[in-house]
């Protein structure tokens, strides 16, 4: 438990300098929501423990960790959400792939996502009735949890091999 807490604090210490050294035109926040207003344009949006609301233009990518993504504007490249939900409005556009890990995704039209949509550990829901033109994959929570457990077990076998104790020999003469 203590080592997990130390790893988490170490991760926070690594993310803090990254958040302060933002690229020009990008927004990287930790614990504070990112909002791109209508008519506003930024490059990338990265958010950890917060949400991203895109009503304007995002010329790069959106990455959300432990939060939600709501797009009513435009994301030129792609969007990734880890342990959160993604909602893409009918007038919104995501130019690349949309990936949601451990959450749900809702989109209204096939034109909303130019690339493929992948949802692992949640549900992919379409509210419109247009024909599907791109790859849309959704893997339910049971499969996602099963794969996660399998990966954890395999990693534990690799990093914590079984220790074999040698029997002690009593040498009394």
Features:
single chain, 173 residues, seven-stranded parallel beta sheet, six-stranded parallel beta sheet, 31% strand, elongated
Describe the protein in words.
It is a single chain. The model has no long low-confidence stretch (mean pLDDT 79). The strands form three sheets. Strands 1-4-7-10-13-15-17 form a seven-stranded parallel sheet. By secondary structure, the protein is an alpha/beta fold. Helices cover 22% and strands 31% of the residues.
What topology does this entry show?
Elements: H1 2-20, E1 27-30, E2 34-36, E3 41-42, E4 45-48, E5 52-54, E6 57-58, E7 62-65, E8 69-71, E9 74-75, E10 79-82, E11 86-88, E12 93-94, E13 98-101, E14 105-107, E15 117-120, E16 124-126, E17 136-139, H2 141-159
Short structural summary:
With 173 residues, the chain is an alpha/beta fold.
Report Rg.
Answer: 22 Å
- Sheet/helix structural class: alpha/beta
How many H/I helices? 2
Largest sheet: 7 strands, parallel
Helix content: 10-25%
The proportion of residues in beta strands is 25-35%
Could you tell me the mean pLDDT?
Answer: 79
Shape: elongated
Distance between the termini: 47 Å
The number of E-state strands comes to: 17
Low-pLDDT sequence parts:
none
Give the SSE order as H and E letters: HEEEEEEEEEEEEEEEEEH
Spatial sequence of strands, sheet with the most strands: 1-4-7-10-13-15-17
